[in-house]
Amino acid sequence: MSFPEAPEPAEPSTLARLLAETFGTFLLVFGLVGTATFSAAFPSSDTSNPLGVGFLGVAVALGLTVMIGAYAFGPISGGHFNPAVTLGLASAGRFAWSDVIMYIVAQLVGAILGATAIFALASAGPAGFLDSAVKGGFVSNGYGEHSPGGFGIGAAIAIEIIITALFLFVILGVTNAKHAVAGFAPIAIGFTLTLLLLISIPIDNASINPARSIATAIFGGGDWLAQLWVFIVFPIVGALIAGLSYRLLFDGVKYTKTSAAK
Description:
It is a single chain. With about 260 residues, this protein is mainly alpha-helical. The chain has a single domain, classed as Up-down Bundle (Glycerol uptake facilitator protein), CATH 1.20.1080. The protein contains 10 helices and no strands. α1 runs antiparallel to α2, α2 packs across α7 and α3 packs parallel to α10. The longest helix has 26 residues. About 45% of the residues are buried.
């Protein structure tokens, strides 16, 4: 007796890919902003409070959301969840330029919905909770007096270029079909994000992702919106630098296996 072979899985439709990007970006923003809003200083901003997860918890939350999203939605859409990543992959020749705009739109929708969900939950909190979150920028990115550590615009520009470029280098490396270990890319990407946030949160609250920055600045308003351009422009600059340089330096290189045994 013989059994028919299972059919080959169909290629994801354009709609499926866009929905995957929307859901994945929603997860990213919901996880990051939710952790920062509800858990970072739980139950208050008192520095003696032992329950809040602090910077470490926020960084781990973002790493986990991206790792989970990459496993869940990556097989459908590629798991970008970030306009800078989409542009960086396109500049590296790993993604079609013709699909860039629709991916970015899907990411913006997912990010705004994620931030809106957290805003709605915060509005149901105790008296003054939502006002305090909005007054603090609603997890928006900022420099100068809006930097967690008081860093200026130069530091914000530099860190966004550096960390986004490093993030893209890791993505391009762990997804390189010639030498990457299959199945482990989301783990490396998630841990990389955690590390980069631990470095950059005190400087400008860590963007790396223009969609995330736009979504939170909408609710932060005022000066947070005025400073938003930095967190749109310079993550993209870092991503394009990484995409173009990785393509030049590493893609197309022939990899050889060497043995330690002589």
